[in-house]
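Objective 1.3, modelling of assemblies. Example input:
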Amino acid sequence: MRLSHLFTKTSKTAPADEVSKNAQLLIRAGYVYKEMAGVYAYLPLGKRVLENIVQIIREEMNAVGGQEISLTALQGKDVWEASGRWSDDVMDVWFKTKLASGSDIGLAPTHEEPLTRLMKTYVSSYKDLPVYPYQFQIKFRNELRSKSGLMRGREFWMKDLYSFSRNQQEHDAFYEKITEAYHRVYERLGIGDITYKTFASGGSFAKYSHEFQTLSDVGEDIIYVHEGRKLAINEEVYTDEVLADLGVSKDELVEKKAVEVGNIFTLGTKFSDALDLSYTAEDGSKEKVFMGSYGIGPSRVMGLIAEHFADEKGLVWPEDIAPYRVYLVRIGGEKAVHEADALYETLTARGIDVLYDDRDERPGTKFADAELIGIPHRVTVSDRLIEQEQVEYTVRNTGDTTLLTVDELLGTLSKS
Ligand code: ATP
Ligand code: MG
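Predicted structure (tokens):
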């Protein structure tokens, strides 16, 4: 992508009402556009980052047997009444509206109910189970406060997978499997070392649910971390009984602020009872399907990563989710144009995603934009360097700068 073609521009300031660091940076660098508090549009650079995050999650969900679908955002009231969750007293984040006919509808805040009902069409025998449908979808929640940028949206992206199993035993095996998949997701997103499997309240079918909490000073949750065992306890269940259950003592735990980047939950037969999702077992008996739900917030993750890795100069994306791998800076006249164009072709031909700063701007402007946008590798082609047959190579997160020949550059990029 040539920067001269990209319709977004960087800016020195963010909207005055934007208080969160992740949104300020993402807006200034042209990744997102703020429609209103908690509502952000994704621009070309932001869409690429979001897609990279989504793709990592997708690969790991497919690896545990997930089947991708796309459910509807518009939801009729009946299915939610069946489970008792239509009432604003039960679910306080509903956005509701009416059809022209006057019927009530809601904008889906989550999808347990509609998916459970949908599965009644396809599940009738033990042979139809287990199944693991999942989706990436915008969820709508009328959050009371939305001051954390992408981390608490009023519309936001969620990956939600739902497991439909024959019984608790089959469910438990999958629960373990997807726990591992979640660890792989956060590892690949570059936040594995600061993300903890966290014990939280479990509902009626399991003693605990599990959240994946990433340490962050701007986190809205409090967790108690056991570094040695790489686990944590959410403050909502931080009791002597839970400590005893997990075999940990208070003095081994450290209180931390964290952001919930995902959670996994045993639903049991709560929704299959309410909506009568059952199947005929091998012995002919009728059984209720045993369910679980598994969420991750790709847009929250994007905000968190933006905020976590940023430095005083701007964004610093981890390699695997950056919108482009290389930011190519061209400085100088005709010779530089020729050489930089050629290098752009060479890198692109090797499958390396390049954002090419081909604008006629001052070097200072280009370097400042490179730093704000936060692409991992910066390569500079200038008239002076061309005479030495070299390019300047800078790593964004360390600032390390070296002079390399093009061959050396290609070698370095293929290693990293
Ligand atoms: P929180 O306690 O932070 O409100 P939640 O318990 O309501 O989260 P879930 O309903 O379990 O969240 O949603 C699944 C995932 O979706 C969460 O783990 C989180 O990553 C993401 N998520 C939830 N609410 C938001 C939001 N308002 N904005 C962005 N992501 C969100
Ligand atoms: Mg919530």
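Residues 7-309 form a domain with the BirA Bifunctional Protein; domain 2 fold (CATH 3.30.930.10).
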